[in-house]
Design goal:
Oligomer: single chain
CATH architecture of the largest domain: Alpha-Beta Barrel
CATH class of the largest domain: Alpha Beta
Largest sheet: 6 strands, parallel
CATH superfamily of the largest domain: Aldolase class I
Number of domains: 2
Low-confidence stretches: none
Strand content: 15-25%
Distance between the termini: 38 Å
Radius of gyration: 23 Å
Structural class: alpha/beta
Number of strands: 12
Number of helices: 13
């Protein structure tokens, strides 16, 4: 799914989230702006510049614009850069033109989206640039900020990563806690034989394994069911053996657990299709932007 398709698919949820963010900041009860300029939208529209104060990968321009369009439908923009572009420190990325009161009300909310999404895109791009093997991909996880997942996942895509499981309804993923709850991976695999899967469930069925023994059971009992095997916190020394076992099985391999920039090069191996990286959305640093008249 492209970023454009993602935004289109989730357009209603994005609208709701933007309105919620504006309501959270109580923009129509801005006592300072109302005190100085009154509550009515008056005066000739003026232009403000959005200045980027760090090198980064830009993300969230469309959401930034949606914030101001939600406040004032006649807001106009002049873009100098777009999502996914590399931006240099002290660059003007766009101009926004609207009445002064609108600019003052929407400034912080709009910048909050832009700075966080750009931070995620920038970190994601650092991982993408470190990829050593062709066709391997960087994926997000569900370790996201409550209420902000849509925008965090869009930012990962903007930075060169790819979409993974969006939510609990997106695909079947049997994780360690499911296995523990059932009793063992053998019991899970035996239970699967008696479960009728829908076409959607069959399309993307993933299971997590902790070691070679569990992987052997999956290959023995569920080769035709499982599409992806996740090696989660898998013993590093056993990864090459696991990849040999998975070779020509038709099953994709995902590596997860403790992946950081400082160990990523050492963890990479040919044959791993996906690297799911939790820190993309739980340990990123926001980029500094400002709105200036």
């Amino acid at each position: 799914m492209t970023l454009k398709e993602f935004y289109k698919k989730h357009s209603k949820d994005i609208d709701i989230a933007v309105k919620s963010a504006l309501a959270e900041d109580k923009v129509k009860d801005d006592i300072t702006t109302n005190l100085l300029f009154g509550k009515k939208i008056t005066g000739k529209p003026i232009t403000a510049k959005i200045l980027c104060k760090e090198d980064c990968i830009l993300a969230g321009v469309e959401i930034f614009q949606k914030v101001f369009k939600t406040l004032y439908s006649k807001t106009t923009f002049k873009n100098y850069s777009g999502d996914g572009q590399k931006i240099r420190n002290n660059s003007v990325v766009l101009e926004v033109k609207a009445p002064l009161t609108i600019l003052l009300e929407g400034e912080r909310t709009a910048l909050n989206f832009l700075q966080r999404m750009s931070g995620i895109a920038t970190l994601t791009n650092e991982f993408v640039r470190k990829l050593r093997f062709k066709n391997a991909k960087i994926l997000h996880t569900r370790k996201t900020t409550p209420g902000f997942r849509l925008f965090e996942l869009a930012a990962v895509k903007t930075g060169g990563g790819d979409f993974h499981r969006f939510d609990l309804s997106s695909s079947v993923m049997i994780k360690d806690n499911h296995i523990e709850a059932v009793g063992s991976i053998d019991r899970v695999l035996d239970a699967l034989k008696n479960i009728r899967l829908s076409k959607k469930q069959k399309h993307r069925f993933e299971i997590e394994v902790k070691g070679i023994e569990e992987l052997s059971e999956v290959l023995k009992k569920a080769r035709n069911t499982v599409k992806i095997v996740m090696l989660d916190n898998f013993p590093t020394d056993d990864i090459p053996k696991a990849l040999v076992m998975l070779n020509n099985s038709g099953i994709k391999t995902e590596l997860s657990g403790g992946i950081r920039l400082d160990n990523f090069e050492q963890l990479q191996q040919e044959g791993i299709d996906y690297y799911s990286v939790g820190m993309l959305t739980h340990s990123y640093k926001s980029i500094d932007f400002s709105l200036e008249f």
